Amino acid sequence: MKQLITLSTCALIFIGLFSCGSAQKKDATSQDTTEIKETERSISGIVQSIENGKDGYTAVVKTANNELYTVLISIPNLGKNNQYRRFKVNEEIAVKGEYWTLGNEKRITVREILNLF
């Protein structure tokens, strides 16, 4: 009788662990896909601020329409074209890349630095 109770308890714990784990994975996946929409976009504007990162930096750019974009400029994304360059605050910039949003924040992963001339 003791073995039956022990076996039943172990079976319930086992079922409980696996049923909870799969529900958590579904929730995390559904959040990720609803947050990000990617399209290609070109913008130009003035660099407002810069935050250094591991392989490059992010810059907040203010366009002529007073829109703010956070642009990711990195060596892995631009190095193969020899286009990586370091911009400074208050410098004019024009970039092209994958546009996506994170919450209300507009972001661009830069694939090309455009000439302003």
How far apart the termini lie comes to 86 Å
SSE order in H/E notation? HEEEHEE
Question: What structural category characterises the helix and strand content?
Answer: alpha+beta
Strand composition percent: 35-45%
The biggest beta sheet is recorded as:
5 strands, mixed, barrel
Considering the protein shown, what is the CATH homologous superfamily of the largest domain? Nucleic acid-binding proteins
* Quaternary organisation: single chain
Helix count, DSSP H or I runs of 4 or more residues: 2
What does this structure look like?
By secondary structure, this protein is of the alpha+beta class. The chain has 2 domains: 1-35; 39-113, Nucleic acid-binding proteins (OB fold (Dihydrolipoamide Acetyltransferase, E2P), Beta Barrel). It has helices at residues 2-35, 75-78, and strands at residues 39-52, 56-62, 68-74, 92-102, 105-113. A 5-stranded mixed barrel has the order 1-2-3-5-4. The chain is elongated and about 80 Å long. The relative contact order is 0.18. Residues 22-34 have low confidence and may be disordered.
Helix and strand arrangement:
Blueprint: H1 2-35, E1 39-52, E2 56-62, E3 68-74, H2 75-78, E4 92-102, E5 105-113
Parallel strand pairs: 3-5
Antiparallel strand pairs: 1-2, 1-4, 2-3, 4-5
Summarize the structure.
With 117 residues, this protein is of the alpha+beta class. It has two helices and five strands; from the N terminus they run αβββαββ.
Q: What key attributes describe this structure?
A:
117 residues; OB fold (Dihydrolipoamide Acetyltransferase, E2P); 2 helices; elongated
